[in-house]
Each structure stands twice: as structure tokens, then as C-alpha cells.
């Protein structure tokens, strides 16, 4: 509550005129609420100064939106607007990083360097396939994507990739966890004002350590689309000469974000050729 502000509105004043998209944590990939991407001119929100771009709605009438699907969050909002008084908890942009860290705290389950689990991992969140990863701002265009974890199907007769991935272009590539039969490519990206311009995704961590990290999407702006070589589905092996095997998605994002504007990031990626896809796929 110290990080958010309370906005009270009337449900009877007509449309708010705001455009919202899912607010995914860049640290954990969890859905934390609704991100206000735009406010219409001459709208009630603009006129009354109710909201500002890049703010995030995290609670509606004291209902926490954490881990809700986008459709559920929209429905909660619609139902709330039927009442005369609506109370919203709104997260300002300058508190977003702190809020994301507070949201990931319950997920931290390692208490030593060997990676021995102290408590059970909470159940994974399965977003609907239609949801897309939305970069939270133009300047920081590398956000951790949400990916439905690939779990082994219960029936041994079914293929191992029993779940559809939320990014169809990745589904054949999420199946390869090793570096064999993959072509290594060195890509240098110079970070400009629009950032590096891609999102990353990983499989669930296991007791053996974090899973491989893949490029999920190439954003329409940024260094990656200008360079043209990085592709969705590429597995990231090295960043600036450092092997990222065993590193978490959060560590990789931190390494990439620490690159200053004008500096160059050297990536080594593995790209799986279709001819070498595992037989089960």
C-alpha cells in the first residue's frame, strides 16, 4: 500500500477512456495487474486527471489482480464499474521496480548456492495463448515474457510437448534443451534509445537449476529489428563472453539492462535447424 495510491471514482460517470494491457512482471513473468498504455483525449480520465499513461492498476475494490488472467481482470473491472463507488489501487511508474521485487519475494525458494529447494515452488501461472508480452516502456524495451511452462503429459503415449506454448513460433524450439545440432551465431547489438528490442522466455526452473533461455519476440523498435539477425526461438548461450548456462532469466535480464545506451552487447545464440528437430516433435 505504501507503493500505490488510491483512486476513487464513480461507476456512473460514463466510460473512463483508458486503454489497458496486461502488466507482466519483468522479473518473474507473473501477471500483476492492468497497465495503462493510453488515455483518450477529451475523456473522463484525462479531464478529471484520474490516471496517467504507464501507471498500473493492481487492485480493484480491494481485489488483488496478481495472477489473474487478462480476461479475469477486465471482468473484475467491468463488474466494479456497476457500483456507484469504485476504489482502485494504482501503481505509479517510479514504484514499479520496487513493486515487482516485492511480488517476486514469495517465489524465492533457494537458500544456498547449491540451489537446494527450501520450499515447494508455487504452481505456475498459465496465461491464455492470445496474450502477448507487452513492453512496459519504450526506453526499457527488454521485458521478461510470460510463457506457459512445458510440462510432461500425464499419458506416456502422448508427445512430451503436451501443452501449447503461448508463443506459437517458439513451440518447436522449446523442445531442445541442449546445444547439440544447433548452429551457433555471434550477434553484436548496439543499444540505442529504444533499447535492445527483444523479449526473453524460459522454461520452469528445476532442481537441476534454471532452464535454457530463449528469445521470445523481436519488438518493432530497437537494436534487434534494425540488425535483423536475431530471431524468435534463438537460445541465448553467452552475453559479452559470459556463459549464461545455469543463470536465471532475471540474471540475464539484469545483465542486458545494465548495458548503457551506445554500448554494444555481444550475444552468442544457438539456432536449431528444422532438419535436426527431435523425432518426437
Automatic annotation (TrEMBL):
InterPro entries per record: PAR3, PDZ, PDZ_sf
A GO CC annotation given for this chain: apical junction complex
Classification via Pfam families: PDZ
GO molecular function: phosphatidylinositol binding
GO biological process: cell adhesion; establishment of cell polarity; establishment of centrosome localization; establishment or maintenance of epithelial cell apical/basal polarity; intracellular protein localization; microtubule cytoskeleton organization
Domain PDZ: from-to ranges: 4-80, 186-259
Leader sequence segment: none
Region of interest called Disordered, as start-end residue ranges on this chain: 146-175
Name of protein: Partitioning defective 3 B
Taxonomic source organism: Phoenicopterus ruber ruber
Higher taxonomy: Eukaryota, Metazoa, Chordata, Craniata, Vertebrata
Amino acid at each position: 500500500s505504501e507503493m500505490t495510491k488510491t483512486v476513487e471514482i464513480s461507476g456512473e460517470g460514463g466510460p473512463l477512456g483508458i486503454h489497458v494491457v496486461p502488466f507482466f512482471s519483468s522479473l518473474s513473468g507473473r501477471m500483476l495487474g492492468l497497465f495503462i498504455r493510453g488515455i483518450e483525449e477529451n475523456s473522463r480520465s484525462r479531464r478529471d486527471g484520474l490516471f496517467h499513461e504507464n501507471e498500473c492498476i493492481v487492485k480493484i475494490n480491494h481485489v488483488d489482480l496478481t495472477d489473474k488472467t487478462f480476461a479475469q481482470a477486465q471482468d473484475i473491472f467491468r463488474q466494479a464499474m456497476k457500483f456507484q463507488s469504485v476504489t482502485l489501487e494504482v501503481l505509479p511508474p517510479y514504484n514499479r521496480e520496487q513493486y515487482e521485487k516485492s511480488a517476486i519475494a514469495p517465489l524465492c525458494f533457494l537458500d544456498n548456492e547449491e540451489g537446494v529447494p527450501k520450499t515447494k515452488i508455487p504452481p505456475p501461472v498459465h496465461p491464455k495463448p492470445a496474450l502477448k508480452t507487452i513492453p512496459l516502456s519504450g526506453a526499457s524495451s527488454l521485458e521478461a515474457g510470460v510463457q506457459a511452462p512445458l510440462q510432461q503429459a500425464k499419458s506416456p503415449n502422448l508427445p512430451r510437448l503436451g501443452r501449447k506454448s503461448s508463443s506459437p513460433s517458439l513451440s518447436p524450439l522449446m523442445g531442445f534443451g541442449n546445444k547439440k545440432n544447433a548452429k551457433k551465431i555471434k550477434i553484436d547489438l548496439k543499444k540505442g534509445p529504444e533499447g535492445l528490442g527483444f523479449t526473453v522466455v524460459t522454461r520452469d526452473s528445476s532442481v537441476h537449476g534454471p532452464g535454457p533461455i530463449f528469445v521470445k519476440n523481436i519488438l518493432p523498435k530497437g537494436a534487434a529489428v534494425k540488425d535483423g539477425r536475431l530471431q524468435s526461438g534463438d537460445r541465448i548461450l553467452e552475453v559479452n563472453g559470459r556463459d549464461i548456462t545455469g543463470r536465471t532469466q532475471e540474471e540475464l535480464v539484469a545483465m542486458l539492462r545494465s548495458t548503457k545506451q551506445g554500448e554494444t552487447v555481444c550475444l552468442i545464440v544457438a539456432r536449431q535447424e528444422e532438419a535436426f528437430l527431435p523425432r518426437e516433435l
